[in-house]
Amino acid sequence: MKTGGTADRHTVVAIDDEEGDLAVIDALLSDDYEVICTSSGEEAIRILEACPTAIVLCDQRMPGLTGDEVVSRLRVLYPDSVRVLVTGWAELDAIVRALNEGQIFAYLRKPFDAAALRATVARAVQHQQVRLENRALLEEVRRMRSLMDQVVRERTALLEEENRALKDLSLVDELTRLNNVRALRTGMKDDYERCVRLGRPVSLLMADVDHFKRVNDEHGHAAGDAVLKRVADVLRTTIRGADVVARYGGEEFVVLAPGSAEAGATVLAERLRGAVEAASAPNPGPAGGTLAVTISIGVAGAAPDEAPPLDEVLRRADEAMYQAKKAGRNRVVTWSDVKRVLATKPQSTFIARSPAE
Predict the structure, then answer these.
(1) Is the backbone of residue 203 left (phi > 0), alpha (psi -120 to 50) or beta?
(2) Which regions of the chain does DSSP assign to beta strands (E)?
(3) What is the reported pTM?
(4) What are the b/e assignments for 171-187, b being 16+ CB within 10 Å?
(5) What are the DSSP calls for 159-171, one per residue?
(6) How many CB atoms lie within 10 A of CB 101?
(7) Cα–Cα distance between 323 and 302 in angstroms, integer?
(8) What average pLDDT does the segment 173-201 reach?
(9) Alpha-carbon span 41 to 6, nearest angstrom
(10) What angle do CA 253, 258, 261 make, to 5 degrees?
(11) Cα–Cα distances in angstroms (integers) from residue 50 to residues 9, 46, 67, 78, in the given order
């Protein structure tokens, strides 16, 4: 028996009771592989304990354990070995048993053809490398999945802690009792992204109270607050059940309309505009009476095949609203309207606004 092995060469274990055949195998393969020869199947099983990934060339007809018995045991004991049955006879039953029970990679006929032997061993080595590399990749995937699961657990715990902290913060605008900007950036963002994931249209309306600065200047801030509360009440009672309304800041309001494309959202915007115009706000100032109120609304839709981030839709609705105010106020302008203007004019209509506007 010849034994040995190095870290940089694949090991081939040859099992044959014919010394001459072992010598041929050793001569043909030893330049490229570490060849271990043995005449006993039982001894080969012990040898593979030290090299469980070896390429095994096992003769069929041997005293003691036959070749198909040896490869069957090796499959169970050392499943990472690659097993090749060698036979000098047309022993179909033994080959079938070796295929079924030993799961051999190939079989060779004696006498050896040198090219066939080298080619079979080279293919077996390549098969072994691919199999071991795939296993290593799977292990890496499992490791990464475990790390990702840990990250998810940590992030989940962090989010739960943040959610508990958010419960201590007000999500409602104190004056209008509508959602405030914080709620807009959380709940409304979730609603928008849910529509995008489900492939549903969604639109955003940006409304601004007309001549609000004039109300404050002429009637006082209490009158301005009354106007904002009146507009908020009208918006709250006029929107549909699935819609969400929030105070965006100052005299601006935002309405999210899930399931509505721009055309349907424009109908909603006109209804909101008309409802506000038909209402009036009480004037708490010395003059008393009521105050007429109108709003300008910009509408921007996000179709299932074109869904920009929420901030971009907000920007589009805000620009459309600004164009509504430029066009005379108390009207609805859509982002599509703005794009048509851009298409017909050489210069941009995106004009920087002054603080007063």
Answers:
(1) beta
(2) 11-15, 34-38, 55-59, 82-87, 106-109, 202-209, 244-249, 252-258, 280-282, 290-292, 295-302, 332-334
(3) 0.51
(4) eebeebebbbeebbeee
(5) HHHHHHHHHTS--
(6) 15
(7) 19
(8) 86
(9) 23
(10) 95
(11) 14, 8, 20, 10
233 vs 166: which has the higher pLDDT: 233
Helix ranges restricted to H, 168-254: 181-183, 189-198, 212-219, 221-238
Q: Which amino acid is present at 304?
A: P
271 membership: H or E segment, kind and range: helix 262-278
Cα pseudo-dihedral 310, 316, 319, 320, rounded to 10: -120
Q: How many other CB atoms are there within 10 angstroms of residue 266's CB atom? A: 22
Domains defined for the chain, CATH in brackets: 11-136 (3.40.50.2300), 181-344 (3.30.70.270)
Active site residue 251: yes
pLDDT in tens, 290-322: 999 999 999 999 887 777 888 899 999 999 999
Q: In the predicted model, what is the mean pLDDT of residues 117-133?
A: 91
**What is the arithmetic mean of pLDDT over 84-89?**
85
Predicted pLDDT of residue 90: 64
Q: In what order do the strands lie in the sheet with 295-302?
A: 244-249, 252-258, 202-209, 295-302, 332-334
Q: Can you give the pLDDT at residue 13? A: 96
Q: Which long-range contacts (CB under 8 A, 24 or more apart) does 38-42 make?
A: 38/1, 38/13, 38/14, 39/1, 39/15, 40/15, 40/64, 41/15, 41/65, 41/66, 41/67, 41/69, 41/70, 41/73
Q: Which residue reads 């959610």 in tokens?
A: 163
Average pLDDT over residues 140-148: 90
Phi, psi at 181, each rounded to 5° = -60, -35
Given the residues 91, 251, 262, 319, select the one marked as catalytic. Answer: 251
Give the least confident one: 49-58, 135-144, 159-168, 226-235: 159-168
